[in-house]
Design brief:
It is found in: Cell membrane; Membrane. The protein has 7 helices and 13 strands. It has 338 residues and is α/β, with parallel strands linked by helices. The N terminus and C terminus are likely disordered.
Length: 338
């Protein structure tokens, strides 16, 4: 005897038709964007950060030891200040090619790899202030062709080479205050044609010929009166302070005039060429002298070979000085004398 059979009730055909025709892709999109963009883990936002509309990611004061992963092309500003990012490795900001503002203040940063900022061609503002940077490798900022504001204030920089900054054609503001700079390397400011704001206070500038390029730039771009009074240099061996704006070009008349770019190009072009010409001349002269000596030697040997051999003299002079030599005891002359 069979028991009662239970069958699952089928939905009405009209209901099936409505489900098939319903816009389910719209539901999927709504569920995907249901999480608010301001919460961690939202799309295009690093997992530990908080993002807001407009492409701003705030990762400030989270004790982060490194740049967070998950950077997106939609990011326009990344705030990483007050963390513990001690070093920037190569490609530290990979994936954030549209980034325009980067804040790395107060991280204890002491090392920046030469390829750390690769891919950030749209970056306009970079803040590296209040860190522990002592040197920057050549080419560090070379990829940042759109950079307009750069802050290196509050570090330990004792020298800043032109190759470290590179050619930044749009840079308008450079902050170097509160470092350990005694002078700026020649040619550094010449590669920044758009620069019109330079912050210099709080450095141990040394009054000397090395300040000539900086003082020339300051005469063309005067500092605000409030800052000009605080940018001072120290005379070597003295305790006297002088404002950098007080030096005219005549104050550097005793200094050697640096070579212009055209002169440097001539020196670099003619130097190796003249060396090669001198080397070739010496080799040619040495080869000529060697060939001449060899020819003379062969001629001397040929002359000696053609000359007849000399026969011995049958009557040699016994004494070229006229003195008779003692006769041989066995000769007839000696017997006659006896």
């Amino acid at each position: 005897m069979r028991g009662p059979s239970w069958s699952r009730p089928r939905p009405p055909p009209l209901l099936l038709l409505l489900l098939l025709l319903s816009p389910w892709p719209v539901w999927a999109q709504v569920s995907a964007t249901a999480s608010p963009s301001g919460s961690p883990g939202a799309p295009d936002c690093p997992e530990v950060c908080t993002c807001v509309p407009g492409g701003l990611a705030s990762c400030s004061a989270l004790s982060l030891p490194a740049v967070p992963a998950g950077l997106s092309l939609r990011l326009r500003a990344l705030l990483l200040d007050h963390n513990r990012v001690r070093a920037l490795p190569p490609g530290a900001f990979a994936g954030a090619g549209a980034l325009q503002r980067l804040d790395l203040r107060e991280n204890g940063l002491h090392s920046v790899h030469v390829r750390a900022f690769w891919g950030l061609g749209a970056l306009q503002l970079l803040d590296l202030s209040a860190n522990q940077l002592e040197a920057l490798a050549p080419g560090t900022f070379a990829p940042l062709r759109a950079l307009r504001n750069l802050s290196l204030a509050g570090n330990r920089l004792a020298r800043l080479e032109p190759a470290a900054l590179g050619a930044l054609p749009l840079l308008r503001s450079l902050s170097l205050q509160d470092n350990e700079l005694a002078a700026l390397a020649p040619g550094l400011l010449g590669r920044l044609p758009a620069l019109d704001a330079l912050h210099l206070r709080g450095n141990p500038w040394g009054c000397g010929c090395a300040l000539r390029p900086l003082c020339a730039w300051l005469r063309r771009h005067p500092l605000p009166a409030s800052e000009a009074e605080t940018v001072l240099c120290v005379w070597p061996g003295r305790l006297t302070l002088s404002p950098l704006t007080a030096f005219s070009d005549a104050a550097f008349s005793h200094c050697a005039q640096p070579l212009a770019l055209r002169d440097l190009a001539v020196v670099y072009a003619l130097g190796p060429a003249s060396f090669l010409v001198s080397l070739a001349s010496c080799l040619a002269l040495g080869s000529g002298l060697t060939a001449c000596h060899a020819r003379r030697r062969r001629r001397r040997l040929r002359t000696a070979a053609l000359r007849p051999p000399r026969l011995p003299d049958p009557n040699p002079d016994p004494d070229p000085h006229g003195c008779a030599s003692p006769a041989d005891p066995g000769s007839p002359a000696a017997a006659a004398q006896a």
